[in-house]
Amino acid sequence: MEVRRQEFGSTSPSGRTLVVFGEGDEMSIIDLLLVSRIEMTNGASAKH
Hints:
Elements: E1 9-11, E2 17-21, E3 27-31
Antiparallel strand pairs: 1-2, 2-3
């Protein structure tokens, strides 16, 4: 999952849940206790 800009992600007050918005108001809700890996890039588009 890609978070295009900082404004497109928001954490809950407890810090356990992350909400990520995509194109067309698409929304993903992530339980951060289930996340096993996070990969950060330098801000350039990643090619898969």
